[in-house]
Amino acid sequence: MLKSARKKEKDPEGRMPLVEHLRELRNRLGKSVLAIVIGAVVSAIYYQDIINFLTEPIQHAVGCSKPFTELAKQSKGACGNITMSGLMGPFTLMIKVSLTGGVVLASPVWLYQLWAFVAPGLHRHEKKYALAFVATGFPLFMAGAWFSYHVLPTAANVLIDFTPQGAVNLLPLDDLLDLVTRMVIVFGLSFELPLLLVMLNLTGVLGGRRMLSWWRGMILGVTVFAAFATPTVDPVSMLSLAAPIVLLYFLAVGFALLNDRRRAHREAQEPSPDEASELDLTPEDIGEVEPVTAGRALPEQAGTERVNGYDDVT
């Protein structure tokens, strides 16, 4: 009874007292943390598989454990050994990887809890834009992560070539995982730039022609960003990041131009708010109208008496 009465008292527009907001925030944070803990436990069980998946591209590219024929193909024969330091190093790394895996595995849960907390305060069109942003942003981020995962071997080959001849290159596992995580985040977030431009166009902040006029500066800016974002100085890694972003930028410009044309066509068909609407002068059949006689007088004017020198009209 109490729960049903509380549901009936909810405002249809999502308004509620501050205490109710704090209680709802606490409940949703609790569900999110519980989902992350469960995901962390699952990640801890498959900890070794996660480590192998993250380090396999670099291990295959520059690891000293790869076949000798592949080592001979390198100009300097340089390779690297993945190492761990300290007695507590493996345990600390396991906790770090498990928590990170828990956040990733529980992302559908905490993203939904975040959406459920924010959505009641949004208008209908804002909800539509937000849902489209989330539905499109996640695949774009995963595409950037996929690109970074396949760029890592090339980047590792370039970096390992700077090792002096005869020296052994030690690759601390925690630093290696930090490098992989940083590249995944940088590539994933950079793929969100076209989506941001599309959302600005849908809200009417930025037009397609203005976006198209920025193409020279955008290409230069993306190239410079790719040069600083990638950990190597080779053109392969830089172009692997810059080329997809530039392509997505032009796709966003094409969408914005089509959306501006559709919006202009719709506004041309709709009447302007400053334009007077046409009046319908067609006579309607209202039946027999009683004629008004000229001799009929109003009750207020029936008498001719004046009050303080004035009649009823004045």
TrEMBL record:
Classification via InterPro entries: TatC (IPR002033)
Compartment(s): Cell membrane; Membrane
Chain intervals with Acidic residues compositional bias: 272-285
Keywords: Cell membrane, Membrane, Protein transport, Translocation, Transmembrane, Transmembrane helix, Transport
Gene Ontology cellular-component terms listed: TAT protein transport complex
Residues annotated as transmembrane: 29-47, 93-117, 129-149, 179-202, 214-233, 239-258
Span list, region Disordered: 266-285, 290-314
Bilayer topology: Multi-pass membrane protein
Keyword Oxidoreductase: no
GO biological-process terms attached to the record: intracellular protein transmembrane transport; protein transport by the Tat complex
Source species, domain of life: Bacteria
One MF term in the entry's GO annotations: proton motive force dependent protein transmembrane transporter activity
Pfam families: TatC
Function comment: Part of the twin-arginine translocation (Tat) system that transports large folded proteins containing a characteristic twin-arginine motif in their signal peptide across membranes. Together with TatB, TatC is part of a receptor directly interacting with Tat signal peptides.
Family: Belongs to the TatC family.
Quaternary assembly: The Tat system comprises two distinct complexes: a TatABC complex, containing multiple copies of TatA, TatB and TatC subunits, and a separate TatA complex, containing only TatA subunits. Substrates initially bind to the TatABC complex, which probably triggers association of the separate TatA complex to form the active translocon.
Name of the protein: Sec-independent protein translocase protein TatC
Gene transcribed to yield this protein: tatC
